[in-house]
Give the backbone structure.
Amino acid sequence: MFKKNSQPNQLGFTLIEVLVVIAIISVLISIVSISFTEARKGTRDGVRMTALSELQLAIEKYKAQKGQYPDQGCGVAGTNWAGPGSHSSDGGVTCNEYITGLAPEYIAKLPTDPNSEAVADMGFLYQVSTNRDAYKIMVYGSVEKKTITSYGDKFARCPAKDTSGECGGDLPPEKVYAVYSPGAENW
């Protein structure tokens, strides 16, 4: 009447089933990893923007109290960019206190790039005019995700195209954030 099954009941997974599950988990991990990496890039750009805004406030407060913008910590004002990283291009010089007298009275500490300051020609740069009545501070070349797409952007290096070569072209440098005083727009 009843036919007895010649194979005992198996309560496991086949090799194919295990491999399919591993493949699905691997794909999901890859997707999450890529999303996480992109989110980190955007977060670092947000840190850069916040640091520039805080520096601008501190520099303006310094000027309100002292009558001039703070001096560069190294290099020749008006001709060199000063920053904490290695900046050989654009006549840059390296020093940790790249804005003299600003920290700790006006800002807790001078910011550095969260990812690229150790890379040559990337990171924070500051320049002040020789009579200290104009300045520009930039995050140079290290912007990752939230790039500059127009001259009207709050952090565009220049407010409009010019003929100096720094801001020429249809779009401003996309991987550079900047804040500046009147008189330093086209540096």
